[in-house]
Amino acid sequence: MPSMVVVGSINLDIVARAARLPTPAAKVTDALIMRYPGGSAANQALAARRLGANVALIGRVGRDADADAALALLREGGVDIAGVDAVPDAATGVALIAVAASGENQIIVAPGANLRLATESLQLPAVDALIGETLTPGDAVTRAVGTFEGFTCVTLATASEVDDAVLRDSDLIVVNESEAAWYGDRLALREGLIAKTFGASGAALFRGGEEIARSSSPAAMAVDTTGAGDAFTAALSLGLVEGKPYAEALRFACAAGATATQRRGAQPSLPTRDEVERVLRDTELG
Ligand code: RIB
């Protein structure tokens, strides 16, 4: 079974579900509030676990009740959280998420304890793959990518401070269209893989500026897109580490991402391997 370590953010997601998203001029008054475990790295870790990997998560939470809620599904799902420390003087990260009936969302994150992930405490296990993200302090992901020996994947976020070494040295970078535009020329010179996601329209894989694979996404009426990108990233990394050809790994990832939009909440929606394989059997992805 492939093994992975995921380094990054752990949040409690407070979700307001309403008919539409608010605008600066128009408030929304029909929302239902739900709380779900979330955070990109925590979601990726659980996604990889449900897809069949042995997974360890490294991150920080506060010493508060939100931490228990944020870690509940990771514990239940068998993710190794020995590398998740509770810091005494910071709150567990919280994401305020508005979700519209269309499945679209808006997210505001209060990172809290996630910002306390210190590079010197990064004890990376000897596993097949590492997934890092840029919502925790940038030097943590720089150090992780710089010292890890196996396959490395980094998911970028718009306006994060990311060292050039991370963009140069990681084996796989995952971005959506707006992130790709924001990083622009800094990504153009990369020799490693770049996966670009296009929401419901699927994703493409590039190497050295050339497109090497493209996949559509299974047609699905999204109820909540939160966590879909994390399912995609975990599935693509796992597929590549398992030795799937590029096009097949990308289809696997698109099916995982689309399946995650079918249920509410970041972590409750993450699909199992059986679910993703069923979707792939029932759908012709071009
Ligand atoms: O990637 C989805 C995650 O982004 C949510 O679970 C939320 O915590 C935000 O950080």
Strand proportion = 25-35%
CATH class: Alpha Beta
> What fraction, in percent, of the residue positions are helical?
25-40%
What is the approximate shape?
Answer: globular
**Beta strand count:** 13
What is the fold-level CATH name, i.e. the topology? UDP-N-acetylmuramoyl-L-alanine:D-glutamate ligase
| Overall average pLDDT | 94
How would a crystallographer describe the biggest sheet? 9 strands, mixed
User: Hetero groups bound?
Assistant: alpha-D-ribofuranose
Low-pLDDT runs of 5+ residues are: none
What is the CATH architecture annotation?
3-Layer(aba) Sandwich
Structure description:
The chain is of the alpha/beta class and 286 residues long. It has nine helices and 13 strands. The chain has one domain (3-9, 40-92, 112-285): Ribokinase (UDP-N-acetylmuramoyl-L-alanine:D-glutamate ligase, 3-Layer(aba) Sandwich), CATH 3.40.1190. Helices cover 31% and strands 28% of the residues. A nine-stranded mixed β-sheet has the order 5-4-1-8-9-10-11-12-13, sandwiched between helices. The chain has a four-stranded mixed β-sheet with strand order 3-2-6-7. A hairpin with a 5-residue loop joins strand 6 (93-99) and strand 7 (105-110). Bound molecules: alpha-D-ribofuranose (RIB). Alpha-D-ribofuranose is lined by residues 9, 11, 13, 38-40, 43, 95, 107, 109, 226-227, 229-230, 266.
